[in-house]
Amino acid sequence: MESLFGDAYPVGEDLNPLFADIILPVPIPRMFTYKIPKSLAEGIGIGYRVIVQFGKKKVLTGIVGKVHAKPPQAYEAKPILDVLDAQATVNPLQIRLWAWMAEYYCCHIGEVMNAALPSGLKLSSESKIQINPLFDQETSAYPLDDRELVILEALVQREKMSYQDCENILGIKSIHGIIKSLVVKEAILVFEEVKDKFSPKVESRVRLVKRYAEDRDALEGLFASISGKPKQEEILLKYLQEVPVFHQVALNEKGLEKSIFAQAGLSQSALKTLMKNGVLEEFKVVVSRFQDELTASDPIQLSQEQDAAKASIKQQFEEKHTVLLHGITGSGKTEIYITLIEEALAGGSQVLLLLPEIALTTHMVDRLRKVFGGRMGVFHSKYSDNERVEVWNGVLSGKVSFVVGVRSSIFLPFDSLGLVIVDEEHESSYKQFDPAPRYQARDAAIMLAWLHQANTLLGSATPSFESFYNARQKKYGYVQLKNRYGEAQLPEFHLADILADKKKNLLKLDSTRLLREKIQEALQRQEQVLIFQNRRGYAPYICCEDCGWIPGCDRCDVSLTYHQFGEEMRCHYCGFKEKVPHTCAACGSTKLGAVGLGTERIEESLALLFPEARIARMDLDTTRSKYGYQRLLEDFGSGNVDILVGTQMITKGLDFDRVTVVGIMDADRILYFPDFRAGERAFQQITQVAGRAGRRDKRGNVIIQTRRPDDQIFTQIMAGDYVNFYLQEMGERQRFFYPPFVKIIKVSTRHKEYKVAEKAARHLHQLMAEIPVKKIMLGPEKGLIGKIKDQYIFESVAKLDRTSQAQAQFKHDLQAALEEMQAHKDFKSVRFVVDVDPY
Ligand code: ADP
Ligand code: ZN
Ligand code: ZN
Question: For position 623, what pLDDT does the model report?
Fold first, then answer.
């Protein structure tokens, strides 16, 4: 990377000292200005890793965020101590994204850095000690005690030691006191040593030693000499069989993976003997975790409607950076993405495709892999850190030009993005809740694309209201796909009235007669069924039938969820678990009943209703392992499962031929939720899960169980009438000041003492209210959940004018207010959390 200030600043003898703003991992919301010493000026620029002194004692590593000629006003800038690398670790566009994110989401740029760098690239440093060159034991004013002498002697031997080394030498636990004393006595110096934690994947291979590989006679001699040893012979034969031979010489350089012999059932001890006797040798190679091979895939033939949509997208990109592709489920958005990605790559640009978390393990990725092979990197949140560093390095080296990934893939070191696609752009999992930066990856992706002057394509069957609003305002382009690909039709919807069935005694184990019939029919035709309930566990809570007591979490303000598996009560907020109580803690009654429906309970009741069916469950509890989700999907895909019960995990991107029935157990639970987005989300979830049915030639059936079949939303969902639903909801949002008509900033105040939390929240609320920006303030109120993990929570909400000026002013003043709060003697231990555009 070129040094940035070469162009920006005049070079001359009496040049002002140059300064660098450094991003440091400290909880202070800004960068810090340091002087660039002349000796380092040549090899430093934006994105370089540097070492600086922070405060009196600390030495930290940070990243250069900016280079300029303006000295800081409030303090004397200290010099940068050292530069760590010969080139930048992150590029200027990444830093601009970080800076935007810190400002927009009201967090520290150090926090963004933390989220952005895989920990293998993080600036980890370790404190080490060395002898102070000025120290002379003879003349020193301070005598050293025995233990200090031991350390000093060891240092003479080794030059430098870590704290851990010292602890090992002395055989004691905490060394800090001794080190501090040695520093005070000026005997040693403490310094920071930086290390990279990335360890590439290494493979053990074996090959013939040169003598046997290149000399036919020697090899024959060898075989003669081991003729009585069949196990060794077998190994050599296997080797020669796997390694190509050319002109009678084994092409031996690359050797063979060592594990092949074990896999072939050959003797490990014979292999060892051959290595010991100098016949085979072992060596290690660094390998990529990603397959390179490109399996041939059929060329894509877009349908007429798809082709027209694609042409329209490209045409609208001429005028607008962002286009919304509104295509019903099964319309083939993926195929359009693929052709657009191919074109962008062919033009030399990089491409990023964002997918919601869970969609990443499905055949969507397999499908993309077939088309893009080794050019494609996958960035999954369940990947190990080393795997992530490999994708990072792949992008950096240019080997990977296309990344498909979860939200954090926006942080990869792209330098020439041409196209960013956000699939299922309405998905709430694009929003990061904790920790900061609390960003919305769709919005950040649009900013990322803008920084690269690239295009963004947002795709969804049920666009977020924000995006649809922007499209209607002509800020975004807009393209529709109204038909499913091929012969497939949208499914037929049925409302099943839970209360009516109950009255007539037709409700069995939470299933209406209609749902049972449809499931039965599907099973008879050997088709598959999906059952959706967005609640894991067995029952949301248990309740004493005599006095109404409900077991709750001691640390959080919520009831405990009953999990039949393991007979446990669990808190879904803090992870607390306990055995299921058999008697009421309040009145001693033994009549404790499970209330409400969780996936476990549905799985159990379906097993009773359909004893012959093979039933599986997909929720957080059954998919915790890295491949748990994939395995369940494979089982379902290969027809080993008839009915799959699941949470919102089953709403995303599943594309199975034989699913013809989708049941929604309790639509009311999605609909009646105290949140302004509840309607929007219900429309999206129900439409999406319904979209899994009948994706091929057979038309699907969707059964929605509800206690309020008259609710208008069902009519609109069933008719696919997104626009009217949108218009009606937007009327409400406008009337009651909700996004996208206003911008929401939520600040929560957390403390372990109720009184302190409340007082701090009031105080802060007052400061926020005084900010001279047009706004509506709500609160402070106890959070929807008033206590989590022993922390009481109060919330203040500001609804701001949409103008960026109002927002910038508010955020700026809010920052000042928070600094004032944090400096207040009563509120030192209070935590404040700012969430911009909360969900
Ligand atoms: P969406 O993402 O819009 O819900 P998909 O991209 O999953 O839809 O497409 C639905 C199904 O139709 C998939 O199985 C896909 O492979 C198939 N399909 C869509 N378009 C084409 C096409 N042009 N050629 C062949 N198959 C297609
Ligand atoms: Zn009781
Ligand atoms: Zn809890």
Answer: 84
- CA-proximal residue: ligand 1, atom 20 (nearest): 332
pLDDT per position as a tens digit, 806-818: 999 999 999 999 9
Answer whether 694 contacts ligand 1 (Cβ < 6 A).
Answer: no
Q: How far is the CA of 542 from the centre of ligand 2 (A)?
A: 11
Residue found under tokens 């670790």: 89
Q: Which helix (H) or strand (E) holds 792?
A: strand 791-800
Q: Which long-range contacts (CB under 8 A, 24 or more apart) does 228-235 make?
A: 229/270, 231/266, 231/267, 231/269, 231/270, 232/270, 232/273, 232/274, 234/266, 234/267, 234/270, 235/261, 235/266, 235/267, 235/270, 235/271, 235/274, 235/280
Give residues with Cβ within 8 angstroms of 771, minimum separation 6.
Answer: 809, 810, 813, 814, 817
pLDDT of 642 above 80: yes
The answer, yes or no, to whether residue 359 has pLDDT greater than 80, is: no
274-296 tens-digit pLDDT:
999 999 998 887 766 555 555 56
Ligand 1 touching residue 301 (CB < 6 A): yes
Cα 27 to Cα 322: distance, rounded to the nearest angstrom: 35
571 CA → ligand 2 middle, Å: 21
Has residue 6 got a pLDDT over 70?
A: no
**What is the reported pTM?**
0.81
pLDDT tens per residue across span 300-332 = 899 999 999 999 999 999 999 999 999 998 899
Enter the DSSP assignment of 298: P
What phi and psi values does residue 704 have, to the nearest 5 degrees?
-105, 115
Asked if 703 and 515 touch (Cβ cutoff 8 Å), the reply is yes
Question: Angle at CA 612, nearest 5°, toward 609 and 615?
Answer: 75
What are the phi and psi torsion angles at 97 (to 5°)? -65, -45
Q: Which residues of 797-808 are buried (b: 16+ CB within 10 A; e: fewer)?
A: bbbbbeeeebbe
pLDDT one-digit tens code per residue, 780-791: 999 888 999 999
From atom 18 of ligand 1, which residue's Cα is the shortest distance away? 332
User: 292-297 long-range contacts, Cβ below 8 Å, gap at least 24?
Assistant: 292/373, 292/374, 293/373, 293/374, 294/370, 294/372, 294/373, 294/374, 295/369, 295/370, 295/373, 296/370, 297/367, 297/370, 297/371
- Of 26, 59, 186, 180, nearest in space to 127 by CA: 59
- The number of the ligand nearest the C-alpha atom of 555 reads 3
Q: Greater confidence, 592 or 243? A: 592
* pLDDT recorded at residue 9: 37
Give yes or no for residue 303 CB within 6 A of ligand 1. yes
Ranges 97-101, 589-593, 668-672: which has the least confidence: 668-672
In DSSP notation, 607-661 reads HHH-TTS-EEEESGGG--STTHHHHHHHHHHTT--SEEEESGGGGSS---TTEEE
Minimum-distance ligand 1 atom for the alpha carbon of 331: 3
CA 754 to chain centroid: 33
Check residue 173 and give its pLDDT.
Answer: 80
Tell which one of 335, 362, 424, 487 to mutate to probe ligand 1, the residue whose CB is within 8 A of the most ligand atoms.
Answer: 335
Q: Can you give the length of the chain in residues?
A: 839
Q: Find the 752 Cα to ligand 3 centroid distance in Å.
A: 14
Does the beta carbon of 327 sit less than 6 angstroms from any atom of ligand 1? yes
- Find residue 60's DSSP bridge partners: 52
Task: Give the tens place of pLDDT for each residue, 180-211.
Answer: 899 888 899 887 676 655 566 777 889 988 88
**Tokens linked to 159:** 């030059």
| Cα 604 to Cα 606: distance, rounded to the nearest angstrom | 6
Tokens 């299921």 belong to 580
What are phi and psi for residue 538, nearest 5 degrees? -90, -50
Contact at 8 Å (CB) between 109 and 65?
A: yes
Interface pTM (ipTM) of the complex? 0.96
Q: How far apart are CA 78 and CA 55, in angstroms?
A: 10
Q: Please state the residue numbers annotated as binding site for Zn(2+).
A: 544, 547, 553, 556, 571, 574, 584, 587
